[in-house]
Design goal:
- The complex is a heterodimer of chains A (390) and B (488).
- Chain A has 390 residues and is α/β, with parallel strands linked by helices.
- Chain A has an eight-stranded mixed β-sheet with strand order 5-4-13-11-12-10-8-9, with helices on both faces. Chain A has a three-stranded antiparallel β-sheet with strand order 1-2-3, with no helix packed on it. In chain A, strands 6-7 form a two-stranded antiparallel ribbon.
- The model of chain A has no long low-confidence stretch (mean pLDDT 83).
- Helices cover 75% and strands 0% of the residues of chain B.
- Chain B is built from 19 helices and no strands.
- Chain B is globular, with a radius of gyration of 24 Å.
- With 488 residues, chain B is mainly α.
- The chains are: A alpha/beta (390), B mainly alpha (488).
- Chains A and B meet through helix 1, helix 2, helix 3 and helix 4 of A and helix 1, helix 2, helix 9, helix 17 and helix 19 of B.
Chain lengths: 390, 488
């Protein structure tokens, strides 16, 4: 009797395993693809072990219901009250905010300061160089970064410290937070699951930058309207950010991402230098185009899709509405994508350069030689951006 | 290819098992050998020729030793040749760089340090081939005529990278008259599920924290962090290696091959001697049979020699060998001698206590709960410091780590953060390292009521399904996935 029942339960277990294996083999032609990749590998294929490793990685990446399993992984980590995720890639604080630990070498701040001085020397007297430091996410909470755990985004504060004592104009959004924060508070200034700032924060930054530049005599177009929250319609989406995606939707929950669509008329041209790519139309058509494809899939929905028209590294946005407004060069990473996008609505022209894409090419001086900008804004969170400044 | 990759679990293994049982009996061993070779090649194709050479040479040695074993001198010569061949390979690939470095250091020489990659599993398959040849010479087994069966014994893929160190007789007997048994196969699947859980949920998650703590400069490591790192490594090592062993045993079962157990809840031990009878059991029995026993016999056969002295001498050589086997560095030598020291102290105390009891004609008293707790604590502390020798890169690093465990800043924000991160994981990992599951299993099997029995069996299946789902989720997420014993 005992043997018979044991046999029955054994059959159930084996059947379950066979079902799961069969499903994974049949899912999206996995077996066919593996055989195709393996048996009909090109002649210049790498060694067998490397080849196996590649197929293994591919299988891991295309596993059925992968995202659901990642959600379960996050739930499991939550049950264990785990704060460190992955190979120390992410961690969570007591408030449920996920931080990205910086995998890159420490910021080379003397080099960055030298680059900033170099830019300033290239500018004429009527041009303004402004460094904008983000409010530090970690300072809001109990945990502070230590030499062993560098938090991505801390570079912004470190750069501000490095620029103190130089003649370069700096704008500390942390100080401004206490003076005028557009009604933002510690909770809605950041996403829980993403290192980027909320759209409200970036609009606040755009508006604050415009205020500072205006005080320097730079003209903007209708900024009281274009940079006012009430001039926009807001669409809200459930959102899982770049850090949250590794632990799924149950680890700290999901965020809400707001898209601000102008109620006023806009006429924008977005173009990429040295290419035929050109987009003309309203703000929604040109700058918000990244949101038209998959707006509801929380696993593919990025907050950095603003202005993603072909190249995230180098592009011009021309606002055709104003005749005589500011021209601004933004040297930034993805953290400022929405800030400059909204600032465009008050400017004549905004040029965006992401230093991480250019290697040793002297792209900043080239750009400054080709156009007379009223202001150069440097802003970013990523260590690599600071280290790549030339 | 890793045991804890989805590719292995959902593609390689089921296809191999299916084809193996579908094939005619005549081709089963050859097929399994081909699968084993493919598996080894998928891990490190460049070292496959070395494995094949080792198998071929030892196969010939086995045949010769089988024929000449009655001729004492000739068999001794061939035995020495066999040992020289096997340990030369091991020496060259594992210890040559260390030796040259030491010569350069001591004699201020300038010998070129070559770049030699450590072949995966060399320590394990060398032990298997040596034990086979010695068994043949000592008459414990007949030499294997079939090169396929011998090659399969050496390279059987679940065992080749990190053991368990299977014995030839145990393995060979199972290759005959193979019949598929659904219960054994299901047991194998269950064992794999548990093994993956141990590895990807406990070992990998704890390992990330341990790595970070150990790699810190000593001056940045607070006392609390140092202790978290030491305890964490103890748990990581156990779950890493026992998880691997569970998968290896489970995979073996799916091919109808039972493998010796390697772990029996070592952290439940109360003495170091007991600990080593529960930790890496197949290595312990190998060392006992092929190092300790011959050396003990050699020493105790001398006139006027004390059995206790012979025991200590045999133990010393055994533990020295065990230390060196684990790696080419002084801290591994100290690792072996560290355990030797405690085992000798325990044996001497036991020896004295036995003598005293004999003199006073009293019986051994059962231990009190307090004594058991104290001994358990003693054992865990010794193992903690012993295991740490395994993790550090050198003896100075070990001393530096010990210093940070007892001096310097006691806590920091980071240490509290890490403590909050690991405490629950440590709790569960510690809890399940005790013999809780065998206790529950025993209770379930003892249930007489039919309804309760079936309910409990269904519950067990549900638990396995849930654990498997967690396994898959962790396998898909984990990028940190080292198997610690692959380095040995």
């Amino acid at each position: 009797m005992l043997n018979k029942t044991k046999r029955i339960y054994s059959i159930i277990i084996c059947c379950l395993y066979i079902i799961v294996c069969s499903f994974s083999l049949c899912y999206e032609n996995t077996l066919k693809n593996v055989i195709g990749n393996f048996l009909f590998a090109p002649e210049d294929a790498p060694d067998l072990d490397v080849h196996f490793s590649e197929i293994s990685d591919w299988h891991k990446g295309t596993f059925p219901y992968r995202q659901t399993f990642l959600d379960i992984y996050g739930l499991n980590m939550k049950l264990f009250d785990k704060r460190v995720i992955g190979d120390f890639s992410f961690f969570r604080d007591d408030y449920g905010y996920i931080y990205v630990t910086d995998p890159y070498p420490e910021c080379d701040m003397p080099e960055f300061v030298e680059s900033m001085n170099g830019i300033q020397q290239n500018l004429y007297d009527d041009q303004v160089l402004l460094y904008v430091a983000y409010p530090n996410r970690t300072d809001f909470f109990d945990y502070k970064s230590s030499p062993e755990v560098r938090i991505s985004g801390d570079a912004s504060r470190a750069a501000l410290d490095a620029l103190k004592g130089t003649s370069i104009e700096c704008m500390d959004m942390e100080d401004l937070f206490y003076v005028n924060s557009f009604g933002l508070n510690r909770e809605n200034i950041n996403f829980k699951t993403d290192g980027h700032k909320t759209t409200e924060t970036e609009l606040w930054i755009a508006s604050s930058v415009a205020d500072v530049l205006r005080s320097k005599g730079i003209c903007f177009y209708d900024e009281e309207n274009t940079l006012d929250y009430s001039s926009y319609d807001v669409s809200s989406y459930e959102f899982l950010g770049n850090s949250g995606r590794n632990v799924g939707r149950y680890y700290v929950g999901t965020d809400t991402f707001n898209i601000y669509k102008p109620r006023f008329n806009t006429n924008i041209t977005l173009s990429i230098p040295d290419s035929d790519i050109l987009s003309t139309g309203s703000f929604e058509q040109t700058v918000l185009n990244g949101y038209e494809d998959n707006p509801h899939d929380i696993y593919t929905y990025w907050v950095t899709d603003y202005g993603h028209f072909g190249s995230p590294c180098y592009y011009y946005i021309n606002n055709l509405a104003p005749d005589n407004a500011a021209k601004v060069l933004f040297i930034c990473d993805s953290s400022a994508m929405r800030a400059f996008s909204y600032l465009t609505l008050s400017c004549k022209k905004v040029t965006v350069l992401d230093p991480r894409c250019f290697g040793d090419v002297p792209y900043i001086s080239n750009e400054l030689d080709s156009e007379h900008y009223d202001a150069v804004i440097v802003i970013g969170l990523d260590t690599l951006m600071y280290n790549a400044m030339r | 290819m890793s045991f804890t990759s989805t590719f292995f679990i959902f593609l390689f293994l089921p296809i191999a098992v299916l084809l193996y049982w579908v094939l005619d009996d005549r081709f089963k061993n050859a097929f399994l050998l081909a699968v084993s070779m493919l598996f080894y090649a998928s891990c490190n194709v460049k070292m496959l020729p070395l494995l094949i050479v080792s198998m071929a040479v030892n196969y010939v040695f086995g045949l010769i030793l089988g024929k000449v074993r009655k001729k004492r001198i000739v068999s001794l010569i061939f035995c020495i040749l066999m040992l020289a061949f096997n340990f030369s390979l091991l020496f060259y690939f594992k210890y040559y760089i260390f030796t040259v470095t030491q010569i350069n250091y001591v004699f201020n020489a300038n010998l070129i340090i070559p770049e030699i990659a450590l072949p995966l599993g060399i320590s394990f398959y060398t032990f298997r081939t040596v034990s086979y040849c010695l068994d043949v010479m000592w008459g414990g087994t007949e030499s294997q005529k079939s090169p396929i069966v011998f090659a399969l014994y050496v390279s059987f893929f679940p065992h080749i990278l990190s053991g368990p160190i299977a014995r030839y007789n145990d393995f060979n007997n199972q290759l005959k008259d193979k019949k598929f048994c659904i219960t054994t196969c299901a047991d194998g699947i269950k064992r794999i599920i548990i093994g993956i859980f141990k590895k990807v949920v406990f070992a990998n998650t704890i390992g990330i924290i341990v790595d970070r703590i150990v790699q810190m400069p000593n001056e940045n490591r607070t006392v609390l962090l140092a202790w978290i790192g030491a305890v964490g490594y103890m748990l990581q090592l156990y779950y890493d290696f026992s998880g691997y062993t569970d998968i290896a045993i489970g995979v073996g079962k799916m091919f109808g091959i039972e493998t010796a157990e390697n772990f029996d809840h070592p952290y439940a031990s109360t003495t170091i001697t007991e600990y080593w009878s529960r930790w890496h059991i197949t290595l312990g029995t190998w060392l006992r049979d092929y190092i300790y026993t011959p050396v003990f016999r050699a020493f105790s056969s001398k006139e006027n020699s004390s059995i206790h002295v012979a025991d200590i001498a045999a133990l010393f050589l055994t533990w020295l060998f065990a230390g060196i086997w684990h790696g080419a560095a002084w801290h591994y030598v100290v690792y072996g001698l560290f355990y030797f020291l405690f085992i000798v102290i325990e044996r001497t105390l036991e020896f004295q206590a036995k003598k005293r009891r004999k003199r006073l004609k009293i019986k051994k008293k059962p231990r009190t709960v307090g004594q058991i707790i104290a001994l358990h604590f003693y054992c865990l502390i010794v193992v903690l410091f012993g295991t740490l020798l395994f993790r550090v890169d050198s003896l100075p690093a070990y001393v530096g780590y010990l210093r940070s465990m007892f001096s310097g800043q006691i806590v920091s924000e980071l240490s509290f953060f890490i403590l909050k991160d690991v405490w629950l994981m440590f709790f569960f990992a510690g809890y399940f390292s005790m013999p809780i599951v065998p206790f529950i299993r025993k209770k379930v099997n003892a249930i007489k009521n039919v309804f309760l029995y079936h309910t409990s069996q269904v519950m067990i299946i549900v638990c396995y399904v849930l654990i498997f789902i967690v396994d898959i989720s962790a396998m898909l997420n984990t990028s940190y996935n080292p198997f610690l014993y692959f380095d040995f």
